[in-house]
Amino acid sequence: MDALRLLAEGFAVALEPANLLWVFVGALLGTAVGILPGIGPALTVALLLPVTYGLEPVSAFILFAGIYYGAMYGGSTTSILMNTPGESGSIMTALEGNRMARSGRASAALATAALGSFVAGTLGTVALTFTAPALANLALTFGPAEYFALIVLGFTTISSVLGGTLARGLLSLFFGLALGLVGIDLQTGQARYTLGLPGLLDGIDVVVVAVGLFAVGETLFQAWKGSAREAVTIVRGFTWMSREDLARSWKPWLRGTLLGFPIGGLPAGGAEIPTFLSYALERRLSSRPEEFGRGAIEGVAGPEAANNAAVAGVLVPLLTLGLPTSSTAAMLLAAFQQFDLQPGPLIFTTNPALVWGLIASLYLGNAMLLLLNLPLAPLWAQLLRIPAPSLYGGILVFATLGTYSLNHSVFDVGLMYVIGLIGFVMRRVDVPVAPAILGMILGPMAEQQFRRALAISQGDPSVFLTRPISAVLLGLAFGAMLALPLWRLYRRVPSTK
Amino acid sequence: MNSGDSDSSSLERPGRDRVEIGVAVCGLALGLFVLAGSFSIGLGAGYDRIGPRFFPYLVAAGALFSGALLLKEALGGGQPSREDRVSRTSGSVAFTLGLALASSVLLLERAGFVLTAALLFWLVARAFASPRPLRDAVVGLALSVAAYLAFTRGLGLVLPGGLLGGLL
Question: What is the mean pLDDT of the segment spanning A97-119?
Answer without folding.
Answer: 92
